[in-house]
């Protein structure tokens, strides 16, 4: 679990710094760029569709992990839009909550049996 924590912290800092730099240099026109790359049918667009699939599966996993409770449903759009800036703090919280148990980390409070 320590490696996962270190990786999560590293990516949070790296993506936060890159996000700040990109936003300050080019503005907050992410949707225009994101969709524009997809409609251009180039490698950037392919990456964006792949990334969108990751974000969608991440959001569904978080909702499922919370048994699609109110909290889980409210967390889903945060995961979808927030990406790694949401997922890394969420994982750090989930690791602490699971007390190092990888099964609990993956499935939450669902019982295995």
Structural descriptors:
mainly alpha; 113 residues
Q: What report would you give on this structure?
A:
The protein is mainly α and 113 residues long. Helix content is 81%, strand content 0%. The protein contains six helices and no strands. Helix 4 crosses helix 5. The longest helix has 25 residues. The chain starts with a helix and ends in a 6-residue tail after the last helix. The relative contact order is 0.12.
- Helix amount: over 70%
The total strand number stands at 0
Given as residue ranges, the uncertain stretches (5+ residues, pLDDT < 50) are none
* Average pLDDT number: 93
How is the main sheet built? none
**C-alpha Rg, in Å?**
16 Å
Distance between the amino and carboxyl termini: 24 Å
Draw up the topology in text.
Blueprint: H1 2-26, H2 30-39, H3 43-65, H4 70-82, H5 84-98, H6 102-107
Helix pairs in contact: 1-5, 2-3, 3-4, 4-5
């Amino acid at each position: 679990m320590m490696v996962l924590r270190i990786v999560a912290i590293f990516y949070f800092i790296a993506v936060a710094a890159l996000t700040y730099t990109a936003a300050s240099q080019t503005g907050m026109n992410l949707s225009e760029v994101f969709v524009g790359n997809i409609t251009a049918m180039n490698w950037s667009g392919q990456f964006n569709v792949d990334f969108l699939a990751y974000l969608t599966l991440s959001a569904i996993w978080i909702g499922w992990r919370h048994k699609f409770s109110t909290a889980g449903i409210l967390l889903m759009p945060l995961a979808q839009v927030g990406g790694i800036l949401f997922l890394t703090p969420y994982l750090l919280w989930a690791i602490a909550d699971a007390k190092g148990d990888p099964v609990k980390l993956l499935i939450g409070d669902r019982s295995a049996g």
